[in-house]
Design a protein that fits this description.
mainly alpha; two-stranded parallel ribbon; 13 helices; nucleotide-binding; metal-binding
């Protein structure tokens, strides 16, 4: 296409940079292996991790209470009340001041992502709310496309750690669990991203994730194996009995097929299930309006 055809029409606002934008000549920044850490330490990512660290600290400050019931410790409601009160302040630490108007909307997804304070339960719908929280941050420009790997394996992974701590500390019930026929009592997305991480791995195959030795040796490096380890810590008995779906998946020949199957399963079992989506909230950043055809 000729240069003249690419140029915006006179008076068009297209591609006009903000008045405060400071441009620089792009240059290489990754010169040595240690430099690889630069993209993992973007300011927005670090602020999100700090936000999650705060939630983690609040768990330590809110110990379980003595109660007759083993499950659903009521101290969780005290922890949640703290988040409910501070959510907008927490989100404001991540969002630049010129985007402050978005904070109340984005904060709703953070509050929705940690479980239900009435039922003291947690499930894939809450997990989806955290994905929506990250999606909103992407849509307003706080997170960028080149942050995507760190978003999953640094921020979302830290979120998982905090949610597991919540589940263990307050003995939260799984929301909408399908028992042995479900993939997992609490999570789904880390199995999708974790299987993607393992595609074309030279040694680890799907059959290895039911091998206790393989899981213990490699779980810190692979999200999928970390999920499996948590299951084995929380459940007793033969793996094939307490996690039948995962046991069946271990027979799939390749990680790419596992990944494709899990994406289809997530669509069918989470995104298209009324009990999950009935609780999802829509706003200006994630509207419910149908897609308009061009």
């Amino acid at each position: 296409m000729a240069e003249g055809e690419r140029r915006s029409q006179p008076g068009s606002s297209e591609d006009i940079p903000p008045a405060t934008q400071n441009f620089i000549i792009p240059k290489k920044e990754i010169h040595t292996v240690p430099d690889m850490g630069k993209w993992k330490r973007s300011q927005a990512i670090e602020k999100l991790v700090a936000l999650l660290n705060t939630l983690d600290r609040w768990i330590d400050e809110t110990p379980p209470v003595d109660q007759p019931s083993r499950f659903g410790n009521k101290a969780y409601r005290t922890w949640y009340a703290k988040l409910d009160e501070e959510a907008e302040n927490l989100v404001a630490t991540v969002v630049p001041t010129h985007l402050a108007a978005a904070v109340p909307e984005v904060a709703v997804y953070l509050k929705e992502s940690v479980g239900n304070s009435t039922r003291i339960d947690y499930g894939t719908g809450h997990e989806a709310a955290f994905a929506a929280f990250l999606c909103c941050l992407c849509k307003i420009g706080v997170l960028r496309v080149d942050d995507q790997i760190a978003i999953v394996f640094k921020v979302f992974n830290r979120y998982l750690e905090v949610m597991r701590k919540l589940q263990k500390t307050y003995r939260m019930e799984p929301a909408g669990s399908q028992g042995v026929w479900g993939l997992d009592d609490f999570q789904f997305l880390p199995f999708i991203w974790g299987s993607s991480q393992l595609i074309d791995h030279p040694c680890l195959e799907p059959r290895h994730f039911v091998d206790e030795k393989a899981v213990n040796e490699s779980h810190k490096d692979y999200m999928f194996l970390e999920c499996v380890l948590f299951i084995t810590e929380m459940k007793t008995g033969p793996f094939a009995e307490h996690s039948n779906q995962l046991w069946n998946i271990s027979a799939v020949p390749s990680w790419s097929k596992v990944n494709q199957g899990l994406i289809r399963m997530y669509k069918a079992e989470c995104l298209e299930k009324f009990p999950v989506i009935q609780h999802f909230k829509f706003g200006s950043l994630l509207p419910i309006h149908p897609v308009t055809s061009c």
